[in-house]
Amino acid sequence: MIKNKKEGQLIIISGPSGVGKDSVCKKLKELKENIWISVSSTTREIRENEIEGEDYYFIAKEEFEEKIKNNSFLEYAIVHSNQYYGTLKDKVYEKLNGGVDVILVIDINGALQIKEKVKDAIFIFILPPSMNELKRRLVNRKTESDDKITERFKTAYREINEISKYNYVVVNDNIEDAAKKIDAILISEKCRVDRIMEVDLNTIEEEIHEKLVD
Predict the structure, then answer these.
(1) Distance CA 41, CA 85 (A)
(2) SS3 annotation, 73-97
(3) Ramachandran quadrant class, 142 (left: phi over 0; alpha: psi -120 to 50; beta: rest)
(4) pLDDT of residue 209
(5) Chunked mean pLDDT (size 10), the chain, 214 residues
(6) Whole-number pLDDT of residue 3
(7) What 3-state DSSP class applies to 99?
């Protein structure tokens, strides 16, 4: 008998700021059961309409650095105006061990850290339809100054140059379509031979014999 692995899949989603990663992942969760979107920790200030524990865990820089010393993070990085972002290990492994697929929406530095540690993680990069569209989305968010928007736009070009380090690329020209493409990727990944547990040859031989006899 062939059995699928019981552990969940670890899915890494990256892409430029403003590309719509969070919106795509939320739509994916509506389409797909048994999936959990990890909540990252950050030292940046909370924005209007953000909720502690849902959007991020907002913690002080000193506390974050203490957790680094204690090896509490699966990955972490300093991005955007020297702020820390990171993913705590405990909850991620709890979900994976329980058979739940886990999505991490993280930057490229964090993704590459995980790539060294978790060999069977799935890496998906989300692109905007165009750089002009990306700039429009950043401006329309109205959450940052012009200088910060310019900084994020420059960072986007550097991030896109790392696209070859990912397994898949999805263009977010429509949120629902992008989510459906990711769903298709995850379905196909579950069918990969190297995600199948050992084959019980004796059981297979018995089943074949029974069918022949019948």
Answers:
(1) 6
(2) EEEEEEECCCEEEEEEHHHHHHHHH
(3) left
(4) 59
(5) 69 92 94 92 89 91 96 88 89 93 92 90 94 82 76 83 94 96 94 67 58 60
(6) 47
(7) coil
Paired tokens of 168: 């898949």
pTM, entire model: 0.80
Sign of the alpha-carbon dihedral angle for 66, 69, 74, 76: positive
Cα distance between residue 167 and residue 109, in whole Å: 16
Per-residue burial over 121-155, b if 16 or more Cβ lie within 10 Å, else e, is bbbbbbbbeeeeebbebbeeeeebeeeebeebbeb
Contact 113, 75 (CB under 8 A): yes
Residue 196: strand, helix, or coil = strand
- Percentages helix, strand, coil for the chain (3-state, rounded to 5) are 45, 20, 35
- Contact assessment for residue 47 and residue 131, using Cβ atoms and an 8 Å cutoff: no
Two structure tokens written together for 95: 């979900």
Q: Exposed, middle or buried by CB within 10 Å (0-12, 13-18, 19+), for 13?
A: buried
Backbone angles phi, psi at 120, to 5 degrees: -100, 15
**How many Cα atoms are found within 13 Å in the side-chain-facing hemisphere of 2?**
7
Return the pLDDT at 47: 85
